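Entry 14. Ran structure prediction on the chain below.
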Amino acid sequence: MTKPDADRSSSIVGVLAFAGIIASVMQTLVIPLIAQFPQLLHTTPSNASWIVTSTLLVAAVTTPVAGRLGDLYGKRRILLLSTIPLIAGSIVCALSASVLPMIIGRGLQGMGVGIIPLGISVMRDVLPAEKLGSAVALLSASLGIGGALGLPLSAAVAEHSNWRVLFWGAAVLSALIAAAVWVAVPESAVRGSGGFDYAGAVGLGAGLVALLLAVSKGGTWGWGSATTVGLFVAAAVVLLIWGWWELRINDPLVDLRVTARPPVLLTNAASVVIGIAMYSSSLIVPQLLQLPTETGYGLGQSMMAMGLWMAPSGLMMMAISPLGARLSAARGPKVTLTAGALVIAAGYGLTTALMGSTWGLLVAICVINGGVGLAYGAMPALIMSSVPLSETASANSFNTLMRSIGTSVSAAVIGVVLAQMSMDFHGHSVPTEGGFRTGLFIGCGVAVLAAALASLIPMRRPNAPATATEVAEPVATRA
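Output, structure tokens:
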């Protein structure tokens, strides 16, 4: 397969980065509307919370499936297929008059998250070696960029327009993604061998649904309730059986022997912890910005103002990704991942000192997301340098899943901390300043843990497999 010229390479990177940002915007699209959905959709707050949970669950289940299908049947083909549920889900949400179709539509939108790991794998297969590092860093960071930009966008619509406009806009953007991928992105000639592991897909899906339901709903149902405990037990049993099955078939959904390699295992472990650190700030800072100044620590910002204060942090991830790519090229992605985790920890340290002002929080959250941009860009490079060329999509998808598990754990842990350390304020329960500080210390601590895990990733030996950039160069001869 001939490598595209410079102009076409830039088009491929631009289209895939745009697709990644739009797919990740779907994750935070409804957050400013959550408090309004019970009234808008004539339902209870508990039922409305499934509008967020359904996206999380479906994304977790379908992302590794999309990765394996991409390895087997073509990454561009599965990329295009992934835009269909994005479009359909957005239209279903825009037309919803009750909570059930909204939950279904949000679930369909969750299926689009696989676009990001698939896009990274396409880049490895089709881009020239000199462009690969910065392109992968940008697309990987799009998971955070879209999440940060989604907040002010949805907040603006929520305050100044009909909420359905948000989903009609999402449908149009998703259709643009499909058209752009069709025109600009070539199909990779690299294919995996064997068939699709249907039993493995069902087993992993069942185990993840049980685990993530327990994690995301445990605070509501009670951590000691029979439902929550039963789900945790079911998740453990099902995932153990799934692992046993994956190790005994020739064409597994996830090659656990490859994921057990120290570089892959430690990168995935660090990804979970980075996911916790990244999402903790997204849960805490918006609340600090919006709480009334009468609390003594709230900053009294409107929903729209909160979104605007948060938006530069997403742009920081975009700005920092090329620097991370250069650091990875010079010193290796292990150094970049470690540095990113330490920058996140430093950002949390700043947050505890600067939480008394909007500008202080802006600086701190930009530092945190700068670290996330470094870390997110390094993870795919570490993964792709340690897995066979024919398994890059499934390996990247599994790594994306690890990050998603981290965000789910973060939501549960920070939610418990803020709920336990709360006070009554004019008839409403709000977190105390001590609760927010505890959450920020947790974010700092897990970022340090991520740096420790990253530092343990084995350095490449002289006779070890080539790096992602080096592997990309001779694709044409191997395909």
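The radius of gyration is 21 Å. Will compare against last week's run tomorrow.
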